[in-house]
Amino acid sequence: MSTKDQFLSRWGFLAAALGMAIGTGNIWRFPRMAAQYGGGAFILAYTLALFLWSAPLLMSEMAIGRKTRRGPVGGFRDFLDRRFTWMGAWMAVVCMLITFYYSVVTGYCLKYFVLAMQGAFKEGVDTTALWNDFLSKPFETVLFHALAIGLCGLVIYRGIQSGVEKVAKLMVPALFIFLVVAAVRAVTLAGAGEGLRYLFVPDWSKLGQPATWLQAFTQSAWSTGAGWGLLLTYAIYTTKKEDISQNCLLVGFGDQSIALLAGMAIIPTIFALSPSLEQANAAMASGNTGLTFISLAQLFPKMAGGVIIAPVFFLALVFAAFTSLIAMVEVGVRSFIDAGWDRRKATIAIVISCFLLGLPSALFPSFLENQDWVWGVALLLSGFFVILAVWKYGADKVRAELINPSADIKMGRWWSFIIKFVSPVVFLVLTCWWFYRGIVDNPRDWWKPFGTFTTMTVLFQWAILLVALPAANRLLARWVKASPPEVD
Question: Less Cβ crowding at N or C end of the chain, within 10 Å?
Answer without folding.
Answer: C
